[in-house]
Amino acid sequence: MAEVRSVLVVDDDPGIREYLQNLLCLSGYEVETVSCGTDALALVEGGAGPGVVILDIMMPGMDGIETLTRLQRLDADLPVIMLSGVGQTAVVVKAMKAGAYDYIDKSFEADELEMAVDKALERRRLVLEIRSLKDRLREQEEADPIVGVSHALQAMKELLDNVADTDVTALIEGESGVGKELVARRLHRHSRRRQERWVKVNCAALPPDLLESELFGYEKGAFTGALKRKEGRFEYAHKGTIFLDEIGEMSLPLQSKILQVLQDREFTRLGGNDTVRVDVRVVCATNRNLRKAVDDKEFREDLYYRLNVVNIRVPALRERPEDIPLLTRYFVQKYAEKYGRTRSAVSDQLMAHFFSYDWPGNVRELENLIKRLVILDDERFIFSEFQSKNVTPTAAVPPLPFAEPLEEIDLTRGPISLKEIAHKAAVVAERRMIAAVLQQTNWNRRKAAKILDVSYKTLLYKIRDCGLER
Fold first, then answer.
1. How much is the pLDDT for 216?
2. Spatial CA neighbour of 441 closest among 320, 312, 329, 317
3. Which residues contact 353 (CB under 8 A, 6 or more apart)?
4. Which end is more exposed in the chain, N or C (fewer Cβ atoms within 10 Å of the end residue's Cβ)?
5. In 3D, which of 269, 201, 280 has the Cα closest to residue 238?
6. Where are the alpha helices (DSSP H) in 321-417?
7. Do 174 and 306 have their domain in common?
8. Cα 6 to the center of its chain, rounded Å
9. Of 388, 420, 440, which residue constitutes the final position of a domain?
10. How far apart are the C-alpha atoms of 399 and 142, rounded to whole Å?
11. What is the residue range of 257's domain?
């Protein structure tokens, strides 16, 4: 991050350069001076990174306007204060239109200069802080794209955090589209094996024979076409994590070999006799009811108990409707950025339909719908889809888990003011959303203020006013 107390002075007059340098240094600024635009550009291009530039408009050779334009190409957010002489109003206007942050006359008072520099440096500091927050937000979203504030989701995350850094085998259960792979990846990223390999195998994508060779590898000549030895996915995942997706679709004979790996941490390749030992964490996922599959003799009971050391159930989207607004916003922002679109939200009418729909495809269905919406930028096709499914919009939004109800109305106290009721309802709704966003951002207030589209100071006031301080 650039030094926010540093000032670069660009002026061809050595007397003015010296005066500005002495004045600003006495006020505690770090000052560097150059005599022309070419030297200023060289410094910035070389990584000098001033917090603000004080730039003379009239200079021989490359004048202030051209220097300003080139500085903005290097750093569009670098504040530039133009230094103008008497009778240069037209040139000053041109400079401001070109992107100058401010201007001061050469007949300035010391306080006037310091005030202009302070304002510019504060702007620079805020811009750099916003850049940093955006980078951190992007990193956080990449690290944990499991979005939601519902009790069910928070309880699941708490369980994940408790077991992530252990090597216990985990079984993730949930309907198709709920995000079981995201949960498995979070387990790996938060584990002691995070620097090692993450290997995914879809057990439903291959027939049993091919799946066995994929998992355990084979020796040369093991079957027609086996021209050389190939290591399997277990061997490749050594020291890391292997994720067996849709484990419930695995054949019974192959299940017995998986059981051996879990018990002894060793196996043999197809067509081979040598024992291969592996150190790997196994995480599995299924959308089937494995307990019922065991009862139906379709899944080995001993393997079920080996896999089910830690059971993680991912709730369906219809079980956590309070997460729909946050998920919607997350996907809108994600795909608007990806496809260069300007959409930032969905209409209240469409959100009402979202709350009324039972989402059989869960989060994946919502994500795909939002992706189409962002690309086409037209809600009408979604309304048509909901109409064909007989979805009637709900009249009420489900309350957030931590939201308190409005006070009961005292009918004995006289006339009831609708304005007062509306005000109370607005206060409660505002408190709910602020609490939801704060929880989602782990109480990062600056990040929450950006999401809620309010200033940082306004958010601090509302947190205090709503009694959300901690």
1. 93
2. 329
3. 382, 383, 386, 391, 393
4. C
5. 280
6. 324-339, 348-356, 362-376, 380-388
7. yes
8. 32
9. 388
10. 28
11. 165-315
* Of 203, 209, 213, the residue nearest 233 (C-alpha): 213
- As a dihedral over the C-alpha atoms of residue 66, residue 72, residue 74, residue 77, rounded to 10 degrees, the angle is 160
Pair of tokens at residue 160: 């994940």
Tell me if 467 sits within 8 A of 427, measured CB to CB: no
Q: Are 169 and 310 in contact (CB under 8 A)?
A: yes
Structure tokens at 254: 């192959």
Domain count, the chain: 4
What integer is the mean pLDDT of 134-161? 75
List of E strands, 61-179: 80-84, 102-105, 170-173
Residue 354 and residue 326: Cα distance in Å, rounded? 12
* Tokens standing for residue 382: 């979604």
Report the range out of 215-229, 369-383, 428-442 with the highest average pLDDT. Answer: 369-383
Beta strands in 197-353 (DSSP E): 198-202, 217-218, 230-231, 241-245, 266-268, 275-277, 281-286, 310-313
Does residue 104 have a pLDDT over 60? Answer: yes
Co-location of 350 and 430 in the same domain: no
Encoded tokens for 218: 């084979």
Quick one: 119 and 22 in the same domain? yes
